[in-house]
Design goal:
Strand content: 15-25%
Strand order of the largest sheet: 2-4-1-5-6-7
Low-confidence stretches: none
Number of strands: 12
CATH architecture of the largest domain: 3-Layer(aba) Sandwich
CATH topology of the largest domain: Rossmann fold
Bound molecules: guanosine-5'-diphosphate
Structural class: alpha/beta
Keywords: ATP-binding, Magnesium, Metal-binding, Nucleotide-binding
Helix content: 40-55%
GO molecular function: ATP binding; ATP hydrolysis activity; GTP binding; metal ion binding; ribosomal large subunit binding
Function: ATPase that binds to both the 70S ribosome and the 50S ribosomal subunit in a nucleotide-independent manner.
Order of helices and strands: EHEHEEHEHHHEHEHHHEEHHEHHEE
Oligomer: single chain
Radius of gyration: 23 Å
Mean pLDDT: 90
Largest sheet: 6 strands, mixed
Distance between the termini: 25 Å
Cofactor: Mg(2+)
Pfam families: MMR_HSR1 (PF01926), YchF-GTPase_C (PF06071)
């Protein structure tokens, strides 16, 4: 499964946020906790479309799709040189598909900051620099090796060498590989380098509870947001401590609590949604059986592959997919009406599934 790794300096609120995630996940009915790694937290992806589908095509239960976060131990300066849990830390980041970078954006004299002052940009730089150095290390090693092979005019080696020549100076400037624009071929190749700074990042500002109603007013959040924008990344403000409290509340009290705080949606829900998007994930639905259910697929996947998300037999024996969009079901109010409007589609092997598709797969067993 695709996973987003939570990283950040010590004492910025990572564990607090991770606890909120785990607690929210603990309420999920069907989750086999026993098999899960303690560093992995599962949450349901909030999606209001499920309730609407279930209203139109009632089933015994609603099943949300899930999303995985991995808690990665705190990074310190020098990690790329093996300081602290340096190597293990970098190895863990290598395993994740996207990075959720938590940055301290609250003042609190009682909570020590590793560098004794709250300075979001300096904090971001500390972590990013360790990742850049680690990448520079792998690029340099590869560079020397590929340069030799490229001299033999080997086509693949030449392409790889050209790409390394593009990446190396950017890293030497202290910038992330994700800030470089690549064409499709380069993108494929870059992926095979497994560089840490080529992964997508979501910067999460851990703001003070008082700033929750109006995060934009937080100077710290503004700094983080500006940095993210310049890099082509996204930023989000949450109060980790509040999220942990919210996660412990029963559902009906949750809404009340959020209203009292002056917000409509919990920060955790926004975080889940943003991370889901960051990973290029999308949702399709199945309905009409015992359950109304949301499933995750990777945007761009074709119908047979998507069928395989449900069961590998569905992929192997794929014949076709009967597809209605959520918008149409919502608009026409029943599958029958969607069909009568000529909006129920029969799609084949080449169909690129869209977010919000409600699908019934036809397959051979
Ligand atoms: P980690 O080292 O990044 O995992 O940080 P923790 O989650 O352990 O948090 C460090 C300390 O900061 C703990 O005492 C938390 O209770 C506190 N903390 C976390 N989030 C907030 C917050 O939003 N506001 C305040 N005032 N304290 C927080």
């Amino acid at each position: 499964a695709l996973t987003a790794g939570i990283v950040g300096l010590p004492n910025v609120g990572k564990s607090t946020l991770f606890n909120a995630i785990t607690k929210a996940g603990a309420e999920m009915a069907n989750y086999p906790f026993a098999t899960i790694d303690p560093n992995v937290g599962m949450v349901e992806v909030p999606d209001s479309r499920l309730a609407r589908i279930d209203e139109i095509i009632p089933a015994k239960k609603i099943v949300h799709t899930t999303f995985e976060f991995t808690d990665i131990a705190g990074i310190v300066k020098g990690a790329s040189k093996g300081e602290g849990l340096g190597n293990k830390f970098l190895e863990n980041i290598r395993q994740v598909d996207a990075i959720v970078h938590v940055v301290r954006a609250f003042d609190d004299e009682n909570i020590t900051h590793v560098s004794n002052k709250v300075d979001p940009l300096d904090d971001i730089d500390t972590i990013n620099m360790e990742l850049v150095l680690a990448d520079l290390d792998s690029v340099n090693k590869r560079y020397a090796r590929v340069e030799k092979i490229a001299r033999t005019k080997d086509k693949d080696a030449l392409a790889e060498f050209a790409l390394l020549q593009k990446i190396k100076p950017v890293l030497e400037e202290g910038k992330a590989v994700r800030s470089i624009e690549f064409n499709d071929e380069e993108k494929k190749l870059v992926k095979s380098f497994f560089l840490l700074t080529s992964k997508p990042v979501l910067y999460v500002a851990n703001i003070a509870e008082d700033d929750m109603a109006d995060p934009e007013a937080s100077e710290y959040y503004q700094q983080i947001k500006k940095f993210a924008e310049d890099e082509g990344s996204q930023a989000l403000a949450v109060s980790a401590r509040t999220e942990e409290e919210i996660a412990e509340l029963p559902d009906d009290e949750k809404q009340e609590f959020l209203e009292a705080e002056g917000v409509t949606e919990s920060g955790l829900d926004r975080l889940i949604r943003a991370s889901y998007k960051l990973l290029g994930l999308a949702t399709f639905f199945t309905a009409g059986g015992k359950e109304t259910r949301a499933w995750t697929f990777k945007a761009g996947m074709k119908a047979p592959q998507v069928a395989g998300v449900i069961h590998s037999d569905f992929e192997r024996g794929f014949i076709r997919a009967e597809v209605a969009s959520f918008e149409d079901l919502d608009k026409y109010g029943s599958m029958q009406a969607v069909k009568e409007a000529g909006r129920l589609r029969l799609e084949g092997k080449e169909y690129v599934v869209q977010d919000g598709d409600i699908i019934e797969f036809r397959f051979n067993v």
